[in-house]
Design a protein that fits this description.
ten-stranded mixed beta sheet, 10 strands, mainly beta, 50% strand
């Protein structure tokens, strides 16, 4: 078997193991349902991306601009927001209107996990920033 398949790079093995740590079995998946790029008139590139994730109970609208994510839960809900990436996790909380902001978002793939006040969780599908 070892002669039939090339060795797997250590980085790939580490990402595979980390994927199990990211798995949230009780979380409902909010899938990407809309994505638009908002660029200022007459400007090439440098615009922001507007994304909508829809789940059974809540939806999440986010704007990705550079290395910042600003978002809103609908309906507005108090929640812990956890930014997940291969580099680790960090979080914030929504305000009373369900809004949140995350600065310094790492380049690459990210997902957002929301732990709602009613003890349920919602996780977005992975996106590249």
């Amino acid at each position: 078997m070892r002669r039939a398949f090339p060795p797997v790079p250590e980085r790939l093995v580490a990402l595979g193991h980390a994927a199990f740590g990211w798995f949230e079995p009780a979380a409902a998946l909010a899938t990407l349902t809309s994505e638009t790029i908002a660029a200022p008139a007459g400007v090439r590139g440098g615009g922001s991306r507007l994304l909508t994730f829809s789940g059974a109970r809540v939806s999440v609208e986010i704007e990705v601009c550079g290395r910042e994510i600003v978002g809103q839960l609908a309906p507005p809900s108090a929640a812990e927001v956890i930014l997940r990436s291969p580099g680790g996790e960090r979080g914030t909380r929504t305000d009373d209107a369900g809004s949140f902001a995350l600065a310094g978002v790492p380049a690459g793939v990210v997902s957002l996990l929301f732990r709602l006040a009613d003890a349920t969780s919602v996780v977005t599908s992975w996106i590249r920033v």
